[in-house]
Amino acid sequence: MSKASTIARMRRDGRLVRLRPDGIEVALESPTLAPRNAAEIEADAIRDTENPPLTEARTAQLRPVPR
């Protein structure tokens, strides 16, 4: 297993680049995300069974975790 770390950065223009040890930035290929409206995002969040949106009942069950 390699012990080298990979450092990636998101440029201000939205491009994702990998920073090589010599300081050179190499562009990474990343798929573009299709634009979605708020209703589509909300519908996907409701369908997510592993991480459902917080409700007041669920919020009341949560306990604070110390830092």
Describe the structure.
It contains 2 helices and 3 strands; from the N terminus they run βββαα. The protein has 67 residues and is of the alpha+beta class. It starts with 6 loop residues before the first strand and ends in a 6-residue tail after the last helix.
Principal-axes shape call: flat
Strand content: 15-25%
End-to-end CA span: 32 Å
Strand order of the largest sheet: 1-2-3
Task: Tell me about the largest β-sheet.
Answer: 3 strands, antiparallel
Number of helices: 2
- Unreliable stretches: none
From the helix content, strand content and strand pairing, which structural class follows? alpha+beta
Oligomer state of the chains in this structure: single chain
Helix content: 10-25%
Mean pLDDT figure: 86
In N-to-C order, the SSE pattern is: EEEHH
